[in-house]
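User: My collaborator and I are trying to settle a disagreement about how two of our proteins should look. Neither of us wants to argue from intuition anymore, so we agreed to look at predicted structures for both before our next call. Could you fold the first one, then the second, and keep them clearly separated?

Assistant: That sounds like a sensible way to settle it. I'll keep them separate. The first protein:
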Amino acid sequence: MIVGACGFGSTGSSVVTDFLGEFGTFFIKDDLEFSWVSSVDGLLDLEQAVMRPHGRTVQSIVAIERFRRAAARKARMFARHGHSAAAFLADADRFIDAITMSKWPWYDPLESPRWVYKSRYFLQALMKRKIIPRLELRLGRHATCWPLTEVRFSAHPANFYAEAKKLVMSTLSAMTGGAEDIALDQPFPGNNPQACFPYFDDPYAIVVDRDPRDNYVFARTRMLGKFHYVPINRVEDYIAYYRGLRKDQPCLEDHPRVLRIRFEDMVYEYEKTSAKVREFLKLPENPAPKSIFDPALSVANTQVFRRFPQFADDVAKIERELPEYLFDYSKYPPPDPGKKMFYGKSPKHAAFKKEYSE
């Protein structure tokens, strides 16, 4: 079983990996966002170009080359998490070879536009405009010299999903020592987790959302200077961003392998919500409840907007524009302002105890 802790950016998805870590049966890989499938130029982008192309010849050629370059970047990252760069790149090359239907020499599909023919690109331009065309007319075939490169074409290969899953699962196996039950951070996008399911064995997604007021104020305070994936300079931009990630998104559809929970429910309705998670994943009773995820600590990350009255006007706009996403705090007391807010994993998580205590 592969369980993905999914969110929308600082919405509390680490509650999932913290909670599952208490069972002692999962390999918890929460020090890396495993977004390889859904990241830019990852497998979902390649799938779109190869399995559902809206263009003709060049679309899959460009997508394959972009995927290969993205894989080279990812290899360095995975090397820091137990999977050698050489082994990862070898797997990526095998995958590309498996789905390639045709290959031939052409010019780099990702090169810069024509203005680069000036100055230091003169020789390259000369080869492309003059020398190679004449050479090919003499040879009666395509030349294979610089600056030509081998391009790869693929259209609706029958083995795409099977080979892509081999690549993903090989990477996970190397990083987790072949563990069967794995909990990952962000392997599926929170707004459309099911799009990634064909690439994983036995996948389950738990999508965690959070009150937009807290999400906004938290981003303006705890995340400031760290991350820019939440727009905060204008509250109007934040409102459009928050709604856009959720309205009419696939994550709202009923799916047997997708569970949606609120961060606040896990804090204020712990028994009920944790039971829902266990039922969803068919888990036994928790042998060590609250040993990592402790609602008494995480309550400090709720009702955050009450701690910072300087954002009251922005919070009022959020309440007017996003009423359907607000959590009803009226049934619960305000948290102790002396409790310390924290970013990410629980302070009981071994790697974060020191940071929280400072």
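The second protein, kept apart from the first:
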Amino acid sequence: MHEPIRTCALVGKFQDPRVAECAQALIPELLARRLTVLVPQDSTSASAPGGVAVTPLPELIERCDLMMAIGGDGTLLYAAGLVAEHDIPLLGINRGRLGFLTDVLPQDMVRSLDAVLAGQCEADRRTLLQARLRAADGQEVQHSALNDVVFNRLETGRMLEFETRIDGRYVNSHGGDGLVVATATGSTAYALSCGGPIIEPRLNVLVVAPISPHTLSDRPIVVPGDSLIEVRLIGQTETCAQVTCDAQMLGELRPGSQLQIATAGRSVTLLHPPGYDFYRLLRSKLHWGVGSVAHER
């Protein structure tokens, strides 16, 4: 970051006592460093901690030099959606359960803040996906995602039948509950529970993972990051599926409509404290090496 940070935006579910406690401890530190502190004017504004300026979202985005997400990975994904069109770095403070993306612990947040202000944090640019859902009548909606684009069935007890194409080439006809298309960042989220691999974030690839496939041979695949993935429903005409981007509803995929997924050509900059190690993060979150004689060197 080349410009000095003067204004910081905080994002989180402030009605959550753990998030509120963390924010109340952080805000005096921000103010002591002569930073203006903003929070978005939304449904959480009523429970926003004192010492902050509740600000309409467009103004907040225009003014802030740094965004800090306090909560779990879902909160950071929401914040990533806010800064996706803007070059605003994002720091995640973990008050959730797992925290692959919010990797700063509360006890380290002041130290990490000072590292950010001193320009000592690692800037980690993460690729975004762009999903385009085109209806049979030509109407189109689109949205970006940091983790994944997912489509899955709306009705219980009815299997979806769909086909996939990559860069215009037919790949497979599937039967199952749906499909996950994930970035390397999202490989540790829903795609992982579908049997997909963990991808090192520096790799420019996508994971395509079927959800509860009808046949065991229908396996996740890894494709180049610049691939164009297309999905269409086939089979029964009355079936439909919902499409989400980072768990936010995009629309419904129906017979005759088409879902296209590709990289967005934009990225989000995550800030990591000095000494950040992706493999150490994996060991911590997935409990690798517990009980073994091996030790970290």
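Some points you might bring to the call about the second protein. The chain has two domains: 7-121+273-286, 127-267. Helices lie at 17-32, 57-63, 73-83, 109-117, 190-193, 278-286.
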